[in-house]
Amino acid sequence: MTRNSSWLLKRYPTGMPGPDDFLLEDLPAPAAGPGELLVRTLWLSVDPYMRGRISPAKNYAAGLKIGDVMRGGGVGEVLQSESPGFKAGDIVQADDFGWQPMTVISGKTAMALDPAAAPVQASLGCLGMPGLTAYFSLLDVGSPKEGETVLISAASGAVGQIAGQIARIRKLDPVAVAGSDAKLAWCRSIGYRAGVNHRTAADLADAVAAACPQGVDVFIDNTAGPIHDAAMSSLNLFGRVVIVGTVALADRFGQPDLGLRHLRRILVTRARIQGFLLDDFVQSYVAARAQLLAWYRQGLLETREDISSGIDTAPHAFIRMLKGENFGKQLVKL
Amino acid sequence: MTRNSSWLLKRYPTGMPGPDDFLLEDLPAPAAGPGELLVRTLWLSVDPYMRGRISPAKNYAAGLKIGDVMRGGGVGEVLQSESPGFKAGDIVQADDFGWQPMTVISGKTAMALDPAAAPVQASLGCLGMPGLTAYFSLLDVGSPKEGETVLISAASGAVGQIAGQIARIRKLDPVAVAGSDAKLAWCRSIGYRAGVNHRTAADLADAVAAACPQGVDVFIDNTAGPIHDAAMSSLNLFGRVVIVGTVALADRFGQPDLGLRHLRRILVTRARIQGFLLDDFVQSYVAARAQLLAWYRQGLLETREDISSGIDTAPHAFIRMLKGENFGKQLVKL
Q1: Any alpha helices (H) in chain A, and if so which ranges?
Q2: Does A59 lie at the interface with B, CB-CB under 8 angstroms?
Q3: Which residue is closest to B58 within chain A, CA to CA?
Q4: Angstrom distance (rounded) from CA B276 to CA B221
Q5: Residue B24 contacts by C-beta under 8 Å, 6 or more apart in sequence?
Q6: Reduced 3-state DSSP string for A223-265
Q7: Fewer CB in a 10 Å sphere around the end CB: N or C, chain A?
Q8: Is B270 in CB contact (< 8 Å) with chain A?
Q9: Which candidate in B268, B269, B279 is best for mutational testing of the A interface (most A CBs within 10 A)?
Q10: pLDDT tens per residue across span B30-57
Q11: If you compute the radius of gyration of chain A from its CA atoms, what whole number of angstroms results?
Q12: Smallest CA–CA separation between A272 and chain B, in Å?
């Protein structure tokens, strides 16, 4: 039997997930059924939405059951294809990779990659889910007009780093919120005009106001929590707030989030707050991917990855990403 | 000197306004300057937005200073016109009536009424600001589709009673939230399908869920507070929440509202929360007024007024409206 060290969900975390919520087990190598691909995992992606998947609470992402193999985005090499569109040796990206060296994915949602076009792991970052999320959340839901100030939380993360650069390309005025001065320095180097360190600011609302002297027109909210409150206090008339992620709530998932409410401010500013889910834009993926790839090949999109090595490190990589300890798109390389 | 008993703002209320926040003084009868009209007040309107006007907090309505005559919507008869479009004897409606028997208003924003078309005070209700608010908040911002469930708070109030009937006319499924069984019975009689009594429900979220078995597609939020929370817990995918008023916060104006936050739910449902201010729709007033008048004359819009008599009662009428003790559009008849 081939050794296939696989991470299982041991229990639903009640607060911030910890290493003990996961269990590493040697499973038999899986076999591809009709329409499936057996794949050797090269890269795994850990993303904030996966916090919702390991919760019994109703969510948009299909939930995992206790004892299931952890699943998420990945890139791998096809070892055996039972799906007509693929053959052994193909490099593919999909959203249903198990956290394991050999995994079986569906041929229906897998996408073949051209390793000559871009590093294959870019399909998990700027050319994949995070890049598309940045693209549609900013340009479609955010409806920005040239010159408007766009505040972006988790600004150096997988989504934020692309959103900030798209804002720069589209002649907007991007302002970063991130958790360290090093992250903010890098954000400035890729085109953010200013930045706020949410861990060291004496008063977060004052810091956002100082960084956004014209106020905030569009807020790409990847975090919720106190950063949301600070942004709301600088929101301009007819401001648009796109709720892309709630990673600041990762430690209290499924429990009520109590705090300041902003309905009066929403009324007075006639703000629009809108929830975002990438799946709703599937009809436009092809065009958006082509635009992102064009920008990437023109050198207009820089990317930064934070790479963790080996299947053993997958839970650690996931947890540090939830805590904001990563610097750039968090990946696991096998 | 003609006696002109006028209500002045004595101080900014810190919580729910009380009678002692206002002062009745005999002022000299005012005189109309160029472009102005001297008017004998027939009706005064008290509306939730006026809570914001007697606060030092930044707001959309121009604030009053301590000692100013209280101002709001009214209907009156022109005694003297210094504005070319009006003459003595005209019946006019405007938003800048003083709380006084004789008042001076601007000819620029006054509107002449045809007493034969509808009772003149309808210009303060179904054919005026509240009716237009119901019209645009539901049909424009709410973007309802036929058959969708529309939950409306303060459902028998000035805005709610019209919103519910427009929803009925447009073949939506209107559900009322109001503060007494008598109000809910009347709401059903004008076309609401079901209702929730927010003062007696054991669990407000459960009561909303039971009244909206298909969930809530559009929520016309006239109150904020716990009713907002209950509506959010039944909100459907792609639900629309229109923040029209925050009367439940009248007792804590300018102070933070603390409680449940719904960002996770907004994300998961891809809800859209949007602040509403009638002024933004001024370009479309003429068409909307014509539609409301047509429905009114066809007998499709019933109205209910709660009338307080005499200038002495103006603060009392205002305060009971803020507390939800009125039943129907609150007016003061002089």
Answers
A1: 50-53, 129-136, 158-169, 181-189, 204-211, 226-233, 263-269, 285-297, 314-322
A2: yes
A3: A268
A4: 10
A5: B5, B6, B7, B8, B312
A6: CCCHHHHHHHHCEEEEEEEEECCCHHHHHHCCCCEEEEECHHH
A7: N
A8: yes
A9: B268
A10: 999 999 999 999 999 999 999 989 988 7
A11: 20
A12: 4
Mean pLDDT over each residue of chain B, to the nearest integer:
95
Q: Does the distance separating the beta carbons of A244 and B267 come in below 8 Å?
A: yes
Alpha carbons A120 and B309: distance in angstroms, whole number? 77
A275 contacts on B by Cβ (under 8 Å): 266-272
- pLDDT > 90? residue B182: yes
Among A58, A246, A258, select the one facing B259 at the smallest CB separation: A258
Q: How does pLDDT run across A254-268, given as a tens digit for each residue? A: 777 888 999 999 999
Place of tokens 């975002």: A276
**A258 and chain B: CB distance < 8 Å anywhere?**
yes
Dist. CA B316–CA B309, nearest whole Å: 11
- Output Rg (C-alpha) for chain B, integer angstroms: 20
Question: Is A143's Cβ below 8 Å from some Cβ in B?
Answer: no
Residues of chain B with CATH 3.40.50.720: 129-279
Distances (CA, A) of A130 to A125, A282, A328, B263: 5, 14, 11, 20
- Mean pLDDT for chain A overall: 95
Instruction: Tell me: pLDDT of A239 over 70.
Output: yes
Q: Report CA-CA distances (Å) from A102 to A82, A232, B84.
A: 15, 46, 85
Rounded (10°) CA dihedral B201, B205, B210, B215: 150
User: Is this complex's ipTM strictly greater than 0.95?
Assistant: no
DSSP string covering B146-206: TT-EEEEESTTSHHHHHHHHHHHHTT-EEEEEESSHHHHHHHHHTT-SEEEETTT-SSHHH
**Mutation choice for A interface testing from B232, B257, B264, B265 by most A CBs within 10 A:** B264
* B221:A263 CB<8 A: yes
Q: Show the DSSP H helices in chain B as ranges.
A: 50-53, 129-136, 158-169, 181-189, 204-211, 226-233, 263-269, 285-297, 314-322
Residue type, A234: S
Interface test with B, best of A243, A251, A269 (most B CBs within 10 A): A243
Number of CB atoms found within 10 A of residue A55's CB: 17
Is the Cβ pair B246, A256 closer than 8 Å?
Answer: no
* Chain B residues whose beta carbon lies within 8 Å of the beta carbon of residue A224: 261, 263-264
**Cβ–Cβ of B267/A256 closer than 8 Å?**
no
Q: Is B198 on the interface with A (CB under 8 A)?
A: no
Side-chain-facing half-sphere of A139: CA atoms under 13 Å: 22
Is there a contact between A268 and B221 if contact means CB atoms under 8 Å apart?
no
Indicate the DSSP class of residue A69. B
pLDDT > 80? residue B287: yes
**Nearest CA among A311, A326, A327, A316 for reference residue A42:** A311
> Would the CB atoms of B268 and A275 count as touching at under 8 Å?
yes
Contacts of A101 (CB under 8 A, 6+ apart): A4, A5, A40, A41, A311, A334
| Identity of the residue in B256, B274, B276 whose CB atom sits nearest the CB atom of A260 | B256
> So what's the architecture of B129-279 in CATH?
3-Layer(aba) Sandwich (3.40)
- As to burial, measured by CB atoms within 10 angstroms (0-12 exposed, 13-18 middle, 19+ buried), residue A51 is buried
- CATH 3.90.180.10 positions along chain A are 4-124+304-333
Q: Which residue of B has its CA nearest to A226?
A: B261
Which one of A267, A274, A276, A281 would you mutate to disrupt binding with B, by most B Cβ within 10 Å of its Cβ?
A: A267
| B101's tokens | 């028997």
